[in-house]
Structure formats: C-alpha cells, structure tokens
C-alpha cells in the first residue's frame, strides 16, 4: 500500500513537466505508429491503493482496455454527471484521496529506420492528468484533458528495440478545478496516442497565413524549418517566410469552402497543407468574413456518443458535420474545449465556421467570489501559467484551420486577470482572429460582445443601442436551450438577427443529448444524471440537444432547420411568390424549385418553377405558372401550393434533390391575407370560434351521449372530459411554471355533471371541472347533436369561473378509445408542433402509427401535438373541426404515466388509446435555461369554444 514515488504532480498548479512545447498538428510524411488498440489496464480505487510498480509492472493479471476510450464506459467505475457543482470538496488544488487511478501499459518496437529522428510520444487527449513512464523512467506528466501533449523519448529508446510505455491516469487532479464543464465526468486516454519519428530537417511547426481582401488573396507560410511552398492549382512556388499575393483565387467561406491543396517541401520531408483564403474582420461593429456580414446559424457542440462518451470515431465526427450541413447550420462553437482535431479538418472541408473554445470552465466557484469565498481560479495567480498554456496549446494546435474564425477563452469562469493573460497571448500570437469570452460582460478586452440566453427584448435593446459594449458585434454564444421538448420561439430571434446588423446570430444550446445507452433488466434506455447512483447530480439537464443521443434529429432540429433556411419563400401579396436569398455568398443558381399543389391534402398538380438566379441578399417575385393561377382563381377550400428549393446537383454533404428551403402559400384566400395554417385562427391566447349549431335533432339512434361518454353506433368513446393538464416539459418544470400550475390544482381536476337534458334540439350536458380544495372551475356546456349524415356534432363552450389561474398548460377534451394503431389527419405535420415551434409544420395530409406520433424525449414529457388540425381519422373514428381547428394528440398511455415516467421503457401501451383535441395549448419556450415564455405564447384562461363532428369510418 505504500506509495514511494512522488505523486505531488496530481495537485500541482503547473500545466505539466517534461512536455514538449505545443505546435501545429501537421499532416506530414513523418513515420508514426498508432498506439490505438489494446493496452493492459488496472484501475485502483485510490492513489494510495495504486501499486508503486510502474517501473516494472507485472501485467499478467491485468485486464485489457481499448484505447482510445473512457474507463467508465469500459466496465470500470461509473459515469457521473454534474453541471455547475463539483462532485468533490472545493479546496484547490486538493482532490479526494479516493481518486480512481488507471494504469495503462503496452509495448511497442521502435523501428530500426527511426535512427536519427526524434522519437515523440503524442497524446491527443487524456482525462484528467497523467504521468508517462518508459522502461521504468518517469518521462513527465501533463494535464488539460482536451489538449495534446508530446513527450520526447529520443534519449530513452533505441531503434529496433521494444519499449514499454506505462501511463498512470488520475480521475481527479488540480486540473479538474478548471474543467468543470456541464457534461459527464469521464476519465482515461480517450483520444489517440501515436509514436512519431520527427526528422530534425523536417518542419515540426508551420503557420499558414492566407487572407482574402477585395478579391485578392495573400499567402505566407511560416515554418520552423525553411522550405518551399508549392500550390499546384495556383501555379505558385515560393519560399517559406515570404508573403505572396495571389490575385486569382477563390475565397473560403462556410458556404463555399474552397480549399487549395499545397505542399511544403523541405530537406527532411513534406507537409501537406489545405489552404483556405479568408479574412475575418470587424468593421463598424460588424464581423465579416471576406467582407460579408456573417449571420451565425450555429450550435454548441460537445463531443458525445451514447456508447463511447467523448471518444468519437471519425465516422461520428463526419455524421455530426453532415447532419449540420444538411440542416443549414453554418457555425459551431466547440463548447467548452477544443474538439478532436479531425473534426476541424472536416469543418474546413465541408464548410462550417468554428468558434474554437479553450478547455476551461470554473463555473462552480461562482463568477466573482468575494472573500471569504475562495477566488475563482481565473483570478488566482497560481493558475495563470496553466491557463495561458491551455490557450497556447489550443492556438498552436489549431491555427491553420480556415474554419476557425474566432478563438474563445473558455466558458463560465467569471472574470480575472488570468483570462486577460490568455486573451493577450491569443491576440499577440494570432491577430487575424477575434477573441471571444462571454463573461467579459463589458468587453474589457475581448473583441466580441457575447451573451447567453438573452430574451428577444434583450437582443432588441442591444440591437438598438449600437454603441453599447464598445459597439462590438454581438452574438448569443448560447440560446435556444434545446432541453426536452423545444426550443420554442426561434423565429423571434431570427427576425432580430436580420433586423439589427450587429446582432449576428447565435449558437443553440446544444447539439446532442448526452444520454448514455444503458440497459436494466434487458430494457435499453438513455441514462442521465442520477442513473449511476451519483450522490450529487443534475438529472436530465445533460440531455438538452437538437439530436437525440443516437443522433436522430429531434423536432427541435427540424424547427431550427426551417427557421434558418437560406431562402424565405412566401406569397408576394400580388398573386405570385416572393423568394428572398439569405445566403452569404451563394446565388440560387444551384437550386431547382419544385411546385406541388394540393386541395385538402390531395395532390392536384406538380412541376418545376423557373426562377432566375437571385443574388445573396436579394428578393425576387415570381409569377405562378398559368395552371396554378387558375386553381387559385377557382378558390377551392384548402388549396395549398408548396414550393421547395432543392439542390440540383449533389454536394459533398448532400445528394441531389436535398431540400434546402420551402414555403407554402394558400391559394384559396387572397394572398394579402395569408394564414400560417389551415383555416381560421386558433391562437393560444384566447380561443374563439363560432359554435356551430347543426340543424339536427337531439342525439338519437345513431349516437348516444351522456356525461360519462358517448358512443357512435358500436364505438364507445369513453371518459370524454375537459383536459387542462400536460406532462410538464423541461421548460415547464425547471423554472417552476409547472409547480405554479399544480398549486392551482390543474394536474388533478375533478368533473361534476351540473345538468343534462334536451335543449334547443341538442342533448346538452353542463359540467364543472375543478380542482379539489379550491374555489375556481371551468364550466363547460357540451351540446351533442345528431346530424343527418350519421355523425355526431359537439359544440363545446367553456367559461372559467371564480379565481381561476391566469394561464393553463392546455385547454382541450380527452377521450378514450379501444386501442388503435393508425392515425391519418389533415393539418400540420409531419412532426409535432406547438404555437411557438410550428415553423417547420407544413399543412397537408399525413398518416402515422400511434408509436410514430410519440417523440422519444429522453425524459418523458409532453410531446406529439399537432397544432391546427382540420380533421383526423383515429382508428375507426373520424373527427372533423367545423370550422375551428384543434390540436391533435394521440397516445397509448395516460398523461399521468407520461409525467411519472423517468425513461422511455416506463411508457407501456395498454389496450386504450387516449385522444386529446386541444382548443389551445401553451407554447414551449426555452425557460429550462432561458427567458420566460413570452406572453404571446401563453394560454390565457378565457372563455373558449370548440366545434367538432364525430363519425365512424369502416
Ligand atoms: C450554460 C453553460 O455555459 C452551458 O455549459 C450549459 O450548462 C448551459 O448553461 C445549460 O445547459 S450556463 C447557465 C448559467 C446559463
């Protein structure tokens, strides 16, 4: 048990010892041996229990582990999730004695022909701190989990001989204090390890400077070993260290990521370079790339895979990039650490603007702690070397990526001199890129004004006051918290980014849900905080992405895609179609425009629409082809035209035919009065609608209606009742909105029949729906009428009574049917939609199974609503809105099961289907981390009515 060798480095403030200076990651022809694969592995629960045998370990009894990987996802220890709080006591630089220690050992033979080369052992990422031993010699130690470290082994190896590498990795270290990112705590060698042979006569560090100003490029390549730069495509050949004008060159941008292959030749070898000419500038408070204002349609990306954690494969990274490009996303903030370098290669190649963020967060200390609270590490001089070194390691590694347009110091550390020192390093070393840090709230030193989760009103104020914060360009480095159902209200932000030049977009929080694939009793689900027995944790706050853990797009990504699409297609108000090009550099000539017209969801025509090339920023009005203009004149109800812009030819990121934008125009109403939906208004705020009194007899032979339910012929429609509750979304629950609704008793209302009888030719039932113990209620009058065609009409009117709550989660009716499988409807789809998440909902006719109608949010919650439904066929029952539209929800479990479920296997279908027709439902918002739901999306309690007809279909 005795520890004889020195482990004091675990709690050292320094960044490392015995490590080589950072340099650019190069694609060169130096020899290398990948050390990915099997290593011998042993996990000790604490440092004290880790045997002191790394000089000559007997690994015969050890396990085998795969590198790269996290030990918690390889069968050792357990993942743990906290957001802000540290899972250990705050007494930097100390860490708990129970500090899991992973020892990795493997051998490798240094090739005989490596004689004369420097032999370097390179780690791309080890979490959180590690020491390297080679053949019993301690080589050094390093820290900075998401940063590379290199060790010079030259003196310790002999060509042709085998060496034994032993790496001791510590779960906790002084470094953990500055790596408090909102994610799983996962340890180990999680990125590649390589053994490199560097020839002294070959470049080891290169800095490419490629700019583009006023149509002309300039190129200069600095190299630690001089050589010649050759760019065959440009006919260029010139020495390193010299600046060369490049007159005929295409610039690099996210939309047109033009790269030029180049090679740097030196005596000792070649370095392949991919050069993108581009200039980032800030002028008049606007950030430009090549002179064009950029609007960041961005996302915050953590590295995540549900089985591998942050140990991503190249395919995982490509999947992310392709999904982003196909969604029209043009920017990524690498929250909150430098990503695997291959991801940046992909961003260069496919075209994504990158905010490369340093591996730094100290959120759990508070922003500006005052004594006696401990200083935040960014204020404490003992951390300065480590923090500046972190910045240096990122900038040096990544400086040659054209995709990186902004450096970011880190996230959520408050303010301190160490940040200023980091800024100064980055600014001096690379003046070509602005530097970002959101908690420098007054922009004392940073080059960009940045906030997170600001309300639309807040963004408006910043847009209006162009001199605030030194007049710098403004971005939302985080907004649109994509936790669970949502985010809502994205269109409101987009409008502001277009209105105010300095408001240059933002980055949705975040890209992917970090749910870890787990199974219990043979049932698979995605685990979140607390599922591994953590004592302190932050539950499902780790699942707040636009993608589900398996990278399936959530409705949030579908919505975001629509909100940021590069063209806006609407009615032009003059009988034609207006198309606005929102691209930064592309015109529309790469797109084919397809028209489909439908009447009541049935296709009546299709074709292509010739559209002249529209330049970026321009709007064109296009006349409808003659056939369609006639349909428009005919004015049949629910005649819709859908215009889709598709890629004419395939690109590197999508096939020909990929849809980049679409719009719908309703042809049967004057184009000046285009509705956003099928039919009349059903706004969340106050539902109106004429009760339609069918000229019919009171419910007779065909259907029966009582307070308990109705039946249509043989079909029982059970438990028909008013419904005012939804399973709280994360955006309802976290800010306490759902608790306020519960205080008003909305989750447990009771129903009382006040009266029933025949009135004015209808069977009229009056009910009062009210919570126990409270004095308010909703009085509903249900008028059932038998209609000549055999259907049953329901005219419902609702009046709140007493001290009713100001807002409701929903106002609808719910009933039960014997279990059904399939639903067809005419309204909005194909995915779910709510009043503030309906941009992507197109009017049309859809069909889906009840299973398909459920959105599998990692923590079960309200989902699957379709706003503005005109009619639905739910199994044997047809429901038609006359004339008001309803929100449709169909599921095979109750709201209360949905509410109490912790993971998807908790939701079990029974033999009953629950159908809810909403008069209105509250919007979604993004209040789990963001502003309150805007008033306009709340459902204000007010008198309301609904008219529907039920028919059986066989
Ligand atoms: C913000 C963090 O920067 C981010 O990492 C994440 O935790 C996000 O919140 C919530 O999911 S910080 C918050 C105080 C606004």
From TrEMBL:
SUPFAM superfamilies per record: (Trans)glycosidases (SSF51445), beta-Galactosidase/glucuronidase domain (SSF49303), Galactose mutarotase-like (SSF74650), Galactose-binding domain-like (SSF49785)
Domain of life: Bacteria
Catalytic activity: Hydrolysis of terminal non-reducing beta-D-galactose residues in beta-D-galactosides
A Pfam short name: LacZ_4
SMART domains on file: Bgal_small_N
E.C. number(s) listed in UniProt: 3.2.1.23
Keyword terms, alphabetized: Glycosidase, Hydrolase
Enzyme class: hydrolase
Coiled-coil spans in chain: none
All residue ranges annotated as the Beta galactosidase small chain/ domain in the record: 698-951
Family affiliation: Belongs to the glycosyl hydrolase 2 family.
Family annotation (PANTHER family): BETA-GALACTOSIDASE (PTHR46323:SF2)
Protein name per its UniProtKB record: Beta-galactosidase
Organism: Kribbella orskensis
Taxonomic lineage of the native organism: Bacteria, Bacillati, Actinomycetota, Actinomycetes, Propionibacteriales
